[in-house]
Amino acid sequence: MKRPMGNAVWTLMLCLGIALPVAFTGRGPPRRAIAGRAVDSHDSIDTARAIDQRFETAYQSRGIVPLPTAEERVVLRRLALALEGRIPSLEELRALESWPAGERLDRAADSLLSERRFADYFAERLARAFVPSLPTENFIIYRRNRLVVWLADRILAGESYGSIVRALVADHGLWTDHPATNFITSHDSDATKLATRTTRAFLGLRLDCAQCHDHPFRSWKQEDFRGFAAFFGQVQVGLFGVADRSAVTEPRMEDAIRSAVPCVPFAPEVFEAGTRRDQLAAWITSPDNPYFAKAIANRVWRLLFGRGLVEPIDDLENPEAVPGVLDLLAEDFKSHGEDLRRLVKVMARTAAFRRQSEFQAAATPDMPAVFAAFPSTRLLAPQVAGSLMQVSSLRTASARDHWLFRLIDFANQNDFMDDFGDRPDEELDERAGSLRQRLVLLNGRIVEERLKPGLFNATSRLAALAPTDIACVRLAFWVCLTRDPSPDENEYFSDRLSGTSGKTREREVEDLFWELVNSTEFSWNH
Amino acid sequence: MESLTRARRERRRWLARAALGAMGLLNARAASETSRPTARSLILIWLDGGPSQLETFDPHPGARAAGPTRAIPTRIPGVSFSEHLPRLAELADRLAIVRSMVTKEGDHERGRYLLKTGYRPSPALVHPALGSICAAELPADGTEIPRYLQILTNDRLTRGGYLGDRWDPVAIGDPKQPPENVTPRVSHDRRQRRLHGVGVIEGALARRAGHIAPAILHDEQARQANQLIDSAQLRALDIRQEPAALRDRYGETPFGRGLLAARRLVEHGVRCVEVQLAGWDSHANNFSIHQRLAGELDVGMSALLTDLGQRGLWDETIVLCTGEFGRSPTINGLDGRDHWTNGFSLVLAGGGIRGGQVLGETDPEGTKPPTTPIGIERLYATILTSLGISPQKQHITSGGRPIKLADGAPIDGLLG
Predict the structure, then answer these.
(1) Fewer Cβ atoms within 10 Å of its own Cβ: the N or the C terminal residue of chain B?
(2) Is B118:B348 a contact under the CB 8 Å cutoff?
């Protein structure tokens, strides 16, 4: 299904071969528009410093010496990967340099957070926790996409996270004009699945264990689970979409849910009027619910750091890496309109986010666990795909690109993820790459196409435009690994470029890009 | 021509041996000889969607539950298969048929997880797939290609789990096509030069950052990937090298080709090959669906078993044929059968499994539970034991918890 589309795009590109250069030159210098509400960073630094203090106290008492601050370029790479699922462009690296010292990274974060592409990518990452993604039927995929677009719109508009979750849990109507209802349809309207997902995704708690037996170490019991599932017991999908009917539908395997009275295991006083789902939504998102804000703070922390403050991320009853940090984040979140971008901003300003990782300095194995070293994690399939797309261009790929470029990127990215083996339903797992993924990078068609010399490809442009061999090597390292080459690397690669010109030089640069893309650093966030 | 006659001769010899087996002579000998495990590889024939036991290995002719499906006699006296499995009925004396599998997972995804890992799904832990266990625990013996392959499967559930992602399966499609991305896109010399360049970058990282454990894994994968690209063993996937007559016997279908590739891969030291035949989820039109699919299974699986026997791979290859559950004795309003976990069938063969026997008996109408109910953990213990892997072996999960490869005892009487 996806591959033919890719082919169609290439055919289209051939047909429009004349129109393209015109479109390209007509795009002018890249601009950044601030979409939606401006990101308020007024006092986010205060919360960030309070968090730093917590970490510092913990390090002192445990005798840990954290790694020093990393280069700004390195931190920009983390930001771009976390917020837009790609490495920074040469354009962005240049912009970073041009800004005044001391505010560079804050400005970079603001710039990324204002992009539609951030909202799209972040919504997709969140959706992986909110709805299942197994491509069972095409219809479901369209519904999921509708939900993701809706979520991205809300994030970009700065809508409060509480109201987003209330819509997911309690909205009713047709999936087309009420995209949030796809939270219900994507779980087959099944009360058990919905209850399990709801507690995991929004409260960071695991009910699954209570589902089949009384879990010895947790306070939630089997009756709690049945009562909780009963909140979804009235869901019905009909001609007019998702609705709640008064008669309880028959749950699939658990007939005990049928007779269960809706109940919550703590804080029952925050119920409001409305359908059972309305009541549940109000309870989940209530400021008095001790888990709601902490769960999203932990989740967003993991999206930025590759590792949660509490792990596993949906088991908040586990101990926190450094106690008190989640509380600080949750408080800031609640007192600032539950704005997801604000939350990101606070985290991006912490010392923890800007520390070196074991890729940059020697660290002991226990340091990443307490963020005394930035944790290094393998990139997810969409991040590798996004980075590969970015590598082939010196400009920032963005939502403001010409539609044809975006279409090609989209098709390529999907083809690539097909080959690479993306597992969108397993967002929670830390995955090392597989052999298959190595083969895609080594021999894959898309890697070849993105790196081979061509009119708009980065390889040709660098080969033609870099004034010296050394500059060419340095730019290639910036584009692919966001860092300067070491003296050894510089010597080896500029030697290879030395004396080359024209097609031979393009080929050399292509090889250099291929080598950088196939290095360990490229496939890791560090 | 000569090799063809040889193959035919071998085939006759093997069938004669099979006939002996039916009389119990061979089994008695095998039992005394094979106190140590002989199996070295596993072929999993995965019937995705949940096949009906009534239309395959456990018919109840005459019962209301049977519907229009008739039964035929097999090589085991008094034991019948459904009419859709005439070839396998002829080989029944080489098979161990378990008719009393019982699980608590009636959902496809959860059932697949249980059958493919031996454990029920847990939010806290990813259990390794059976194939990952085989690949990780059995010796490589010079095998350069990945030791756990999935053909036609796309379930995203089977993983290395706590054994590590390096034991994830490598999935391939219909072996009619060559596998993807194993052919370098540049000349040999240019590739060598590129790999040298990668080495320069990796060397700089190693000097800068000293010991990074994950990077070592990355290197290991690059090494494996490059070894695979260079390996002559990749030919194992090229079924065009097999005689046309043999390919015909397996059936010119993706499933048939997959089984043929599985045999070739096992010959090359691959430790587990999973071949999927999907589409058994017959909530409607159960009988036409099973007529078609069981027919395809009968052709392919009988060809595989015969081929394994002829090539002397019988004892070193254990074959498991199962889906995630069975189907209900009750026939629903759409002429379909729904999910059924309380007494379904699976088949084991080769690899030191004592053939010619049936375990467990189901109630025709499904109102009573089966006799000698058997859980998945015991199936796993049986298979692992036959492969010489102790089911009791424990690994420590990332959460620090010890866990056994299989939490049960081998099924009585199945292991020679």
Answers:
(1) N
(2) no
Chain B, nearest residue to A315 by Cα? B124
Interchain CB distance below 8 Å, A431 and B165? yes
Report residue B215 as tokens: 């990077």
Summarize pLDDT for A29-77 with one digit per residue, the tens.
Answer: 333 333 334 444 458 899 999 999 999 999 999 999 999 999 999 999 9
Residue contact B209–A378, C-beta within 8 A = no
Q: Which two tokens stand for residue B357?
A: 């026997």
Burial profile A154-173: b = 16 or more Cβ within 10 angstroms, e = fewer: bbbebbbbbebbbbbbbbbe
Q: Do A444 and B194 touch (CB under 8 A)?
A: no
Handedness of CA A40, A46, A50, A55 (dihedral sign): positive
Interface predicted TM-score (ipTM): 0.82
Question: Is A454 buried (19+), middle (13-18) or exposed (0-12) by CB count in 10 A?
Answer: middle
The overall pTM is greater than 0.90: no
The answer to whether B347 and B47 have CB atoms below 8 angstroms apart is: no
Compute the distance between CA of residue A306 and CA of residue A301 in angstroms, rounded to an integer: 8
Which residues on chain B are in Cβ contact (under 8 Å) with A421?
Answer: 171
Cβ-defined contact of A442 to B224 (cutoff 8 Å) = no
Q: How much is the CA Rg of chain A, to the nearest whole Å? A: 24
Q: What is the pLDDT of residue A38?
A: 41
Provide the 3-class DSSP secondary structure of residue B370: coil
A203: confidence class by pLDDT, cuts 50, 70, 90: very high
Tokens (6 digits) for B240? 């065009």
Q: What are the tokens at A200? A: 């995991």
pLDDT category of residue B28 using cuts at 50, 70 and 90: very low
> Tokens 């490229």 belong to which residue?
A522
Helix (H) or strand (E) holding B357: strand B357-359
Which backbone phi and psi does B403 adopt, to 5 degrees?
A: -145, 140
Length of chain A: 526
d(CA A360, CA A165): 39
Three-state secondary-structure class, residue A133: coil
pLDDT of residue A239: 77
